[in-house]
Design goal:
By secondary structure, the chain is α+β, with helices and mostly antiparallel strands. The chain contains four helices and seven strands; from the N terminus they run βαβαββββαβα. The protein is 22% helix and 30% strand. The protein is globular and about 45 Å long. The chain binds a DNA duplex through loops.
Length: 152
DNA sequence: GCCAACGTTGGC
DNA sequence: GCCAACGTTGGC
């Protein structure tokens, strides 16, 4: 099993929204590196950290599980969605998404500042320069440490 | 709201 | 294939 970190702006979709919905499509991904990870590497049952970006308290807020295989992201064909892609061919869709299932909400946010200041995380892609991927693999070690911090 | 660090697009 | 212009992400 692999571990991932998935970013979302809470004003768009938050951990509380996922707790309420239980399962939700993780859609709107429009980056080829991320698309390829979804297509090739992310498997049903993989565990993910839910990360809140672009907000007052930035950081890791809970965990979730991958709940489906990758499938074509319907929002790419919806002109009213946030990210329609008129160049995507319905016969050969460009963008994929997958369903995620709520697992847990942390007792507290494990903040980006905290992660940056802890040498345990110095080799984590999240804190390395120039990394803006909204989905990234993380090590089991980092996943377990973040889970432990969030549960305390 | 600013802007650095990307990624994408399209003219040539 | 190069690269300038433009768009996006996301921390601050």
């Amino acid at each position: 099993m692999n571990y991932w970190l998935l970013k979302s702006e809470p004003s768009d979709y938050s951990i509380d929204d996922l707790q309420r919905d239980a399962t939700e499509p993780w859609d709107g991904i429009r980056n080829y590196q991320v698309r390829n990870m979804i297509r090739d590497d992310i498997k049903v049952g993989d565990t993910c950290i839910f990360y809140h970006s672009n907000t007052d308290v930035i950081g890791c807020v809970g965990t979730m599980k991958i709940a489906s295989e990758a499938y074509p992201d319907p929002t790419q064909f919806d002109s009213k969605s946030a990210h329609p892609d008129p160049k995507s061919d319905p016969e050969n869709p460009r963008w994929l998404c997958m369903d995620v299932a709520f697992e847990s909400k942390f007792k507290r946010t494990v903040t980006l500042a905290e992660i940056k200041s802890d040498p345990t995380f110095s080799d984590m892609r999240l804190v390395m320069k120039g990394n803006r991927l909204s989905v990234m693999p993380i090590s089991k070690k980092h996943f377990q440490k973040i889970s432990r911090l969030g549960s305390s």
